[in-house]
Amino acid sequence: VADAGGRPVAVGGRPERRALAPAFGAVAGDGEGADVVIEAAGTVEAWREALRLVRPGGVVLAFGGLPRDAHVEVDPYRIHYEEVDLRGAFHHTPRHVRAALAFLGSGAYPFERLVTHEVGLDGVAGLLADPPRDYLKAAVVP
Predict the structure, then answer these.
(1) pLDDT tens per residue across span 29-52
(2) What is the pTM of this model?
(3) CA dihedral (10, 15, 16, 20) positive or negative
(4) In the chain, what are the domains?
């Protein structure tokens, strides 16, 4: 986003994650009145917040998927009269996965700072069931 002249703002999530925002070219903030809101958490609460934060005439990109039975209330007044654009994005095509892997390996950002824990295959279930307070991301090491 910053490379395209935008001002990325990290909103929500745990303070430990927001503290890393500057290392990835963003600032932590409230995000109110954003031109574009990219929802990537995949929770009903995050979808609601994205729709609340976008400015009139702005775009909400729903990147984080929700379960089939999830429901998010949408304010039709905002969609119609404020011309808020709500878009979905499915992100699992081979071309996009290759591009994402290349980006992760490019060294452009310190992605290694996101990995706070390493676990073996036998430790994955325990980590997900009871993650430590300082857990951001885990690397599964066979």
Answers:
(1) 888 899 999 998 999 999 999 999
(2) 0.78
(3) positive
(4) 2-110 (3.40.50.720)
